[in-house]
Every structure is written in structure tokens, then in C-alpha cells.
Amino acid sequence: MTTIKDIAEKAGVSIATVSRVLNYDPALSVSDDTKQRIFETAEKLSYRKKSKVKKNIAKIALVKGEHDKEELNELFYMLIRFGIENKCEQHSLHISTFFHGSEKGMYDEQILGVIALGKFDSQQIISLKKVSKNIVFVNFSPDEEKYDSVITDYENAIVKVLDHFISHGHQKIGYIGGREYDRNQNHNSRVKTYKKYLEEKGLFHKENLYLSSFTAEEGFNLMNKAIKEQGGELPTAFLVGCDTMAVGCLKALHEAKISVPERVNLIGMNDFVFTKYLFPSLSTLKVYTELMGESAVDLLMERLLGRKIAKKVIVPTTLKIRQSSL
Q1: 252, part of any domain
Q2: Domain limits at 181?
Q3: pLDDT digits (tens, 9 = 90+) for 46-94
Q4: Structural domain total, the chain
Q5: Does residue 255 or residue 69 have the better pLDDT?
Q6: How do beta strands 94-98 and 283-287 pair?
Q7: What phi and psi values does residue 267 have, to the nearest 5 degrees?
Q8: Does 248 fall in a domain?
Q9: Who has greater pLDDT, 36 or 243?
Q10: Are 70 and 216 contained in the same domain?
Q11: Highest-scoring range by mean pLDDT, 89-93, 111-115, 216-220
Q12: Residues 4, 5, 9, 15, CA torsion sign
């Protein structure tokens, strides 16, 4: 069994620091980088705190279906989960974690509510409703009139980036991203917003849109494809669907000796801790993952206290401009 001492040794910090971070000590003054390193280490070592409480909220970690693995971003969902754990700690609520395919295990526990993290199809939602009528979806909103949900405002986020590019004189703006699915239909709000907004500005060209899966490898492959296909006509700016893909894009541009940001501006999405340490440091949209998790628990507590009307929480983003864009 993993101990706090194991985490401290692996993360290169003191045992006391690990303990205070994992217990969300508000008086602790350490950098966000240190906190995230400790959380990541705890996750890698499969550390789980001992429960001191009796109530149960089941948390469905994330969808791992045939399409969902394409958009799986472990760090993104891990940070949401830490926000959930933080808030549950404040409310003295224990979390039982289940994955798709193991929902039957929830029927044997006294579950007060469900926090569903990821994408779910209609049959899976029916299964969750058998466990509890109190369900909050995170990063997914299947029916805002029926279910509570917490999502990121990706539409305004995309417009924010595009306006930034346009205000700096970019007329040829590309998008490199992953395909987003649920089991019933292919949908991608980021791509739709990118296309619609640039069409309104008379700047959309389908050859500047590149989609695959949300991985660094595919970011590398898609940027290489764009370089090969467009040569000297390569867009002067790219919005990339996640920071992980942006790492691959930067590598491809570097190997092709295409300067960033002098020739190509690049903006990613998520603001993971590593982005500020890349060269050049990555401009990105900060997504407030931990707040998403905390908000989900708040919604569930409201349901348990009697709220009947569904509520949808939309969390905004912040544009962080660094060296990869002017």
C-alpha cells in the first residue's frame, strides 16, 4: 500500500508538505506546480486516503468506450477528480469509484448520489438512474432540463482565441484537435464554433482543419501533415484542441525549422503545469478543472437538500498568453 512517505520521496518534497496538500490545508503556501506534482505522483502510485465518513457518493471516473479512449486525457480528468475529492472532504462525504462495466457494484452500496465524469450514452444513463435519481454530469450535459451538469464554456473560449489571432493580423488560422464523441452521435463543439465563427468573418478554409485523437503523437502527425500539404501557405496561427497535442505540434514545427511565434503562432487548451516550461512556453486557454469538480459536489449537495429543478453550471476560461503567440 502506498504511503505519504512514498509520495514525498517520489515528488521530492517533505512528508509534511504531501500530507497538507492531500488534505487541502488552506494555510499551506506552496506553488501550484508543487501541488500538481504531488497530485500526479499520488495518482501514479494509486494512493487512496482512508475514509473517515459514512455517507457515500459514487463517482463514475470516466467513459472508456471504443470512441472515448480517443479523447481520454488522464491529467484533465485527474484534476477534476481532485476537485471532487477536495469538496467531498469538506462535506464529510466518502467517494466510491466505479468505471463503466462495473455499475452493478453500485447497487450493493447505499449511494446518495452520482457524479458522472465523462461521456455516457442513453443506456448507461438509465443504469445510473437505477442507482440514484441524484446525478451530476461533469464535462458532459446530456439533457439540461433533466440533469445537473458542469461544463466548460468552450464556445466563448474558442472565440476568445480567434479574436486574439484576428486582432494581431492573422487571416489564415488553422485548428488541430481531436474528435469528440458520445455513443449516439459524433459531436465536436470546439470544431463547430471554430468553423462557424471564421465563416462569419469570411476566414474559414476547410483545408486548415485537422482532426485525429487528443495525443501528442497525433499533434505531431497533424502538424507535419499541414506542413507537407501547405508548405509556404501554412496558416500563420493555430489553435490546438489540448495542450498535449500542442506539445507534438511544437516538436513538428521545430524539426521543420519553422519558427514559433515568428512564422506560426500557437495556442493550446487546458493550461497544464508543463506548458510554461516548454520552449517556447505555450500560450493556452486555462480550464478550471478543479473548480469543475468542486462545482459538481456543490450541485449534488443542493439536490440532497431538496432542489428539484435541474441546474447547469458553465465554467469560463482564461487566455494565458506566453511565448508561443504574439
Answers
A1: yes
A2: 154-287
A3: 787 654 444 566 554 333 333 344 444 578 888 888 898 888 888 777 7
A4: 2
A5: 255
A6: unpaired
A7: -130, 125
A8: yes
A9: 243
A10: no
A11: 216-220
A12: positive
How far, in Å, CA of 39 to CA of 22, rounded? 7
Name the nearest CA neighbour of 222 among 247, 193, 195, 252. Answer: 252
- pLDDT tens for residues 150-169? 999 999 999 999 999 999 99
Q: Distance between terminal CA atoms of the chain?
A: 48
Q: Which candidate, 38, 32, 43, places its Cα nearest to that of 19?
A: 38
Cell of 326: 504574439
- Are residues 142 and 214 located together in one domain of the fold? no
Nearest-5° angle of CA 84, CA 59, CA 62? Answer: 95
Q: How confident is the model at residue 143 (pLDDT cuts 50, 70, 90)?
A: very high
Same domain, 31 and 120: yes
322 assigned to some structural domain: no
d(CA 212, CA 208): 14
Q: Report the CATH number at residue 254.
A: 3.40.50.2300
Both 129 and 17 in one domain: the answer is: yes
Strands 283-287 and 317-320: antiparallel
Q: Are 47 and 124 within one domain?
A: yes
Q: Are 20 and 160 within one domain?
A: no
- Model confidence pLDDT, tens digit, residues 2-11: 889 899 999 9
The pLDDT of residue 123 is 87
174 and 202 belong to one structural domain? yes
Residue 26 sits in the same domain as residue 117 = yes
Amino acid in position 110: Q
Cell of 89: 472532504
Question: Has residue 67 been placed in a domain?
Answer: yes
Asked whether the CA dihedral 4, 7, 40, 47 is positive or negative, the reply is negative
What span, in angstroms and rounded, lies between the C-alpha atoms of 73 and 96? 21
CA distance 47 to 156: 36
